[in-house]
Each structure stands twice: as C-alpha cells, then as structure tokens.
Amino acid sequence: MLKTLIPLLLLMIGTGAGIGGGLYMRPVPPTDPPAEDTADAPPERKVGHEDGAGPEQDYIKLNNQFIVPLVEGERVTSLVVLTLGVEIPSGQRERLYMMEPKVRDVFLQELFAHANRGGFRGAFTSAGNLGNLRNSLREAARNALGDLITDILIVDIVRQDN
Question: In the list 27, 61, 109, 138, which could disulfide-bond 85, CB 3.0-4.6 Å?
C-alpha cells in the first residue's frame, strides 16, 4: 500500500510545484502607455516606395522553420535551421496562406540546392552568401508563384554541427 502511495504523492507534489512555478514566472501583462501629444509627430508612412507612391507591402513570417541537412558522403554532418519571411503586395496575405505548402516546397528545393552547392559551408552568414541565398529564393519564388512574393527575409539562421 505504501509503495503505491509514495509515487502518487510525489506526482502530486511535482505537479503542484510545476503549476506554482509557472504562475510565479508568468509575464506581467503590459500596461497601456500614457497618451502622447501627436500634434508634432510626423505623419505615418506606408511601407512602399521611397516617395510614398506605389503599392503597400506586407511582411509575413512563414509559420514553420526550414531544416536543411548538410551531407558529406552518406552522413549528415550538420543541420541548418532557417526562419524565413516574405514581402508580398498588400492584400495578398490570404493568397499566400492558401499557397503556403507550394511556397514551402519551392523554398525547400532551393535551400537543398544551395546546400549542395556548398552555400552553407564556411562563412555561410557572410553578406555575399546570404545575398546569393536571398536572390536564389526570390528567383525560385518568382518562377513558381509569379508576382506573389516580391522579396525574401532571412529572419533567423543557425548551423548545428554534429
């Protein structure tokens, strides 16, 4: 009887401590900032061309990360994990979400090709390498999806060597 009671008691204590710790560590809800006098504030600019003319742009962070294995011989030696965002014309958000599986497929194909060209070896975060990656992703998106995606944003990138 005592042998079955001790694990249950420890489970209840651990669960209670976990809940208590979670409640203690929860973030404080933000308070509203005081109202500011906006008479001297500059007018808001739309995201678009520098002169303010032209279409507005929306920036969308794609939902899931991209994981690219780096293979030498027949062995995975590293993993590259990327978070990508895209720039799209304003009002195209719903179209992008409907086509997200196609977008992910196109990007993964290009990321694998970039890895096979050695783009994630050495100084893979140099401006030149990231520029090449961004350009190849943009071209692949344009070829497969037309004018839906106007630019690529590399939000996060990390390489984990084994």
Answer: 61
Q: Report CA-CA distances (Å) from 112 to 35, 64, 106, 107.
A: 50, 17, 10, 9
For the record, the structure tokens of 8 come out as 């249950």
Give residue-wise pLDDT tens across range 135-147: 999 999 999 989 9
Kindly state the tokens that stand for 159. Answer: 């390489």
Q: What is the pLDDT of residues 32-70, one digit of tens each?
A: 555 555 455 444 334 554 444 456 899 999 989 999 999
Phi, psi of 52, deg, nearest 5: 85, -10
What Å distances lie between residue 63 and 66, 79, 84, 144, 155, CA to CA?
10, 19, 9, 20, 12
Q: For 91, left (φ over 0), alpha (ψ -120 to 50), or beta?
A: left
Structure tokens at 70: 């780096």
